[in-house]
Amino acid sequence: MKEAEQLIERLNNGVAPQFVVLDAIDQLAEEGFELLSMEKPWDLKAGGKYMVNQHESSLVAFTMPSKILQQEELANRLENASPYLRIAAAHTDYPALRIKATPDMKTGVYGKINTEVYGGAINPTWMDRPLGVAGRVSLKSDDVFAPRTVLYQSDRPVLIIPNLAIHMNRDVNKGVELNPQKDMLPLFTTDVEHHTFVDFLAEELEVSKEEILDFELTCFATEQAEYVGVTEDMISAPRIDNISSVESCIYGLLDAGVTEHMNMAVLFDHEEIGSRSNKGAASAFLRDLVEKIFVSTGVGAEMVIAAIYQGMTISADVAHAYHPNYPDKEDVTNQPVLNGGFCIKEASSQSYATDAEAISIVEQICKKHEISYQKFVNRSDLRGGSTLGAISSALLPMKTVDIGIPILAMHSARELMGTQDIHSLNQLIGAFFKEV
Ligand SMILES: [Zn+2]
Q1: Domain boundaries, the chain
Q2: Is 268 helix (H, G, I), strand (E, B) or coil?
Q3: Could you tell me the distance, in angstroms and rounded to a whole number, from the CA of residue 246 to the centre of ligand 1?
Q4: 41 CA distance to ligand 1 centroid (A)?
């Protein structure tokens, strides 16, 4: 249960992408990982442990090999099938409500907040839930090119979106469409004459409201993760997609320690909205970072490309478990269940990176170390989702596999997973990083 306890702590801490990154940095720093900047030259040491924080909501952490290989030695090493560069990737963002600029709205005595829905949220699950606010805020500074940015998390719920009473919508149980611009605006105060959101934020940050220039703030469900089931064999929590995978990427990296090859845990923001940004999986960030590592240790451009092509990525993101009330929504021969182990996800459309050779590497690791796994494939008449594996493998064309813990209620404000499954994903990523 220790692994589940650690996951629960991370689920509770990761209220916004910036806090998922901060939580990972805290844990990695304790283990001796040192922060580097993409904007400066690097002097990487053999056995060194490093991390790069990209605009506060994406993070790469990596360990240098115990011996840094030079040009010729690297060429020889790459003859070996065992990947020299190993990446485990996950995303830090989740579907939620984001607070818009100029957020204050008045309706009579009520103060409401203007929000937009970020990613594919199940909108009704956000109703009647106490909501906190977290993210980053940028503040005025003397240097125009260097505004101050601060991370902020409210220590209590400050927002809520009340449902309309059934007496005013007798058809509510037939399903109700919620308009994101009208029906999903959180209530902030019953005394709008004396309270605005911007005043509240300024007070919380101990600055004047004129100093607040802009922010990236997420409304988060303040309820904590909980065990569910007669034997506590399930975990109900916000943000299981995709903090469960973040946890395993960090766990695996720390479990492996320094090896003779290069291991990298990559946490990307913006997966839920397509990954295209200056810190998402569709950006040049990861490729630039990989090139920078090799070039800074004296490896030439041709061998950098060789190392990329010889590498391997495991992209971790949650999968759909078989739902007891909707058995007809799952594939007819592949029906992963809660507590059956992590899933290998396949789709011939390549919405999941699907490569029989790469998948069998993962299966061989599992068989060797007795790690339980299942396979997930969408029903042929359902389109299903996608994730960052296919996007990152288009930019780093190495062997790539999409895997993840099977869950229920994906993209609900509270999702459900099997308590045992974090163990199988932790084991797999640890073994992937350690295998010689
Ligand atoms: Zn996800």
Answers
A1: 2-94+238-434, 96-221
A2: strand
A3: 10
A4: 33
CA 336 / ligand 1 centre spacing (Å):
17
Query: How many CB atoms neighbour CB 349 within 10 A?
Result: 11
- Write b or e for each residue in 145-178: b if 16 or more Cβ atoms lie within 10 A of its Cβ, otherwise e: eeeebeebbbeebbbebeeeeeeeeeeeeeeeeb
Ligand 1: centre distance to CA 2 (Å): 24
Cis (ω within 30 of 0) for the bond into 242?
Answer: yes
Grouping H, G, I as helix, E, B as strand and the rest as coil, residue 26 is: helix
Kindly report, residue by residue over 323-338, the tens digit of the pLDDT: 999 988 988 898 999 9
Q: Which residues contact 349 (CB under 8 A, 6 or more apart)?
A: none
Q: How far apart are CA 353 and CA 162, in angstroms?
A: 41
If you measure from the C-alpha of residue 344 to the centroid of ligand 1, how many angstroms do you get, rounded to a whole number? 14
Q: How far is the CA of 90 from the centre of ligand 1 (A)?
A: 8
pLDDT single digits (tens) 347-385: 888 888 888 999 999 999 999 999 999 998 888 888 777
How confident is residue 300, by pLDDT bands cut at 50, 70 and 90? very high
Q: What would the DSSP string read from start to end of 183-197?
A: T-PPEEES-TTT--H
Question: From the CA of 406, how far away is ligand 1's center (Å)?
Answer: 11
Distance (angstroms) between ligand 1 centre and the Cα of 436 equals 30
pLDDT at 362: 96
Architecture per CATH, 2-94+238-434: 3-Layer(aba) Sandwich (3.40)
Among the listed residues 386, 406, 252, the one whose alpha carbon sits nearest the alpha carbon of residue 341:
406
Residue type, 186: P
Distances in Å between the Cα of 396 and the Cα atoms of 135, 142, 305, 308, 435 are 30, 40, 9, 7, 21
Residue 417 phi, psi (nearest 5): -135, 170
How many angstroms does the Cα of residue 196 sit away from the middle of ligand 1? 34
Residue 157 token pair: 């719920």
What CATH number has the domain spanning 96-221?
2.30.250.10
Residue 419: CA atoms inside 13 Å, Cβ hemisphere, count?
15
